[in-house]
Amino acid sequence: MTPVTKHLFLFASLPVYATASCVEYSIPRYPPRNAAPLDPTPIGLSFEFYMWPSYMTNITPPMQCAERLSDLYGRTMPIRIGGTTQDRATYDPEFEGYVSYVNEDPLVAPMELTYGPKFWDLIPEYGGETILGFNRGDNNRSNTFAAVVEAKRRALRNLVAIELGNEPDVYNMWNKSIVVPPWNASQEGASAADWAQEFLNVWKQPLPILAAGSYAATIPSRPDWPNVPYLINTAFNDSVKAGVKTYSGHLYAAPPNKTDLAGEMSHVKTVADLSVFNESIALSHGEGVPFILGETNFHPYDVHMDETFGAALATLDRSMRAVTIGIQRLFFHQGTINQALFNWWSDRQINAPFYGGYMAVQALAGGTSIVELDQGDSSYAVYVVYSGHRASKILLINTEYYAEGVRPTTDFTLSGLRASRVTALRLTAESSEVVTTREQTNPGSPRPTLGGQWFSNADCSAKGARKVETTRVGGGKATFSLKASEALLVYL
Ligand SMILES: *[C@@H]1O[C@H](CO)[C@@H](O)[C@H](O)[C@H]1NC(C)=O
Ligand SMILES: *[C@@H]1O[C@H](CO)[C@@H](O)[C@H](O)[C@H]1NC(C)=O
Ligand SMILES: *[C@@H]1O[C@H](CO)[C@@H](O)[C@H](O)[C@H]1NC(C)=O
Ligand SMILES: *[C@@H]1O[C@H](CO)[C@@H](O)[C@H](O)[C@H]1NC(C)=O
Ligand SMILES: *[C@@H]1O[C@H](CO)[C@@H](O)[C@H](O)[C@H]1NC(C)=O
Ligand SMILES: *[C@@H]1O[C@H](CO)[C@@H](O)[C@H](O)[C@H]1NC(C)=O
Q1: Whose CA is closest to 324, among 353, 281, 288?
Q2: Is 208:244 a contact under the CB 8 Å cutoff?
Q3: Region 335-360: what's the mean pLDDT?
Q4: 39-368 fold
Q5: What pLDDT does residue 340 have?
Q6: What is the CATH number assigned to the segment(s) 7-35+371-491?
Q7: From which domain of life does this come (predicted)?
Q8: What is the pLDDT of residues 82-134, one digit of tens each?
Q9: Which of 177, 280, 297, 380 is within CB 3.0–4.6 Å of 342 for a Cys-Cys bond?
């Protein structure tokens, strides 16, 4: 090798950096007036109704991971048990198992199932605050109210809310017998009110207890589509409203292009997806009750991008943005095991989106209020979490997509910092497209890491060396570099 070619070889092997762009934010020392109050456990889990016993008793590591999230909160993570199969469930007081259904294909949810009283015994066994769903779609009041009475007897201590029907706005898609055409906001609203009143007569105390709405889609341009503002403004009278603990919406973003992860993970898209709830949030607060996302996840149909690291960043950003605009809690849905690609877990596997959920809990736990500093019009998100009067954590997210080639970097300069140095944990992966594997054998293989660590598929314990970054603050300012598709949690 001649000296010249050697020189060229060395030069060519140097990493090539794209010009860094930079953004600057000033951190308000005290919570600004527009800061949103934070619930102590804003991120929860939703379990598809017929899968609840399987998540609790059959597979690892979902409940071990839930325990890790509960450890971050210092209290048990809240859950919701419901979904499309809640409106296919018949209660049988004599049935001694958890659930029973004909399973033609384990990856397809059954159209009918039976469940017994043992189903609810798993709720006190879990031990956290639980929202429980019941069947309205099959229009069998005696069956549903018999179930309600027994569930109350067995699990009252943990029941914080009851849903009467899941996604009733799309009941006609499932040919549910309760549907009265055209099943617009008027018919659905009257049915919701009537069922709520009869339920309240059966339930009696404690009140309030209903999670109302639970619509699949919120479409502000379609006032005839069943919607929470209609329930509040028109369908519910004071007697029904006295029973409402919270209003609830569901959020899955239907991607216009099922392979466009870059567009789907972008902060601008997350902001737009959540803005459809503005009116529902404002009206709920006007009634003095919270608004939650009782069920949410990336997309409504199984698309590959749901299992990627990009989905983890979207999960993180959706969580932070939602609580910032006044949504009290989000319940991330866990659907059919080994089938729903957005699931945080499969059997013996932690999926990439869990890393985003974990970091959201890490960022929000212990916080009392939150404010977003960016304008929602770029790929960069900046959230400041306050504990009492003190800014305690800052979460930076660079939602730019990255697959291969030159990976752009953005410098986030923060001013108004009071410490002389700060520490931070980074969420990263080799690209937005990284997915996890069941084997986890090769420690060098691409996987998401949080603070240098990854979670073991065996028991959800943290593996690898923990990496805490320290940054010096000069004149109240510090700069943090985030590559495309990275997030950084800064501890003040
Ligand atoms: C409603 O459920 C009860 C059992 O609780 C059952 O006996 C009855 O046949 C059901 N009614 C309809 C219309 O399916
Ligand atoms: C609902 O009914 C329509 C018309 O009978 C049928 O084409 C469709 O397959 C049914 N859908 C379901 C989910 O059963
Ligand atoms: C309130 O609305 C419910 C449901 O429509 C109805 O059953 C009930 O009688 C109403 N209560 C009053 C006090 O008007
Ligand atoms: C729903 O449809 C009924 C019957 O066509 C109609 O009277 C009512 O105005 C509609 N409601 C809404 C909210 O569009
Ligand atoms: C969908 O997104 C992919 C990835 O960004 C892109 O290659 C493709 O052209 C898009 N398809 C359409 C129809 O826009
Ligand atoms: C919702 O509120 C946000 C923040 O106030 C605003 O930027 C957005 O335009 C609103 N969106 C809708 C659909 O009302």
Answers
A1: 281
A2: yes
A3: 98
A4: TIM Barrel (3.20.20)
A5: 96
A6: 2.60.40.1180
A7: Eukaryota
A8: 999 999 999 999 999 999 999 889 899 999 999 999 999 999 999 999 999 99
A9: 297
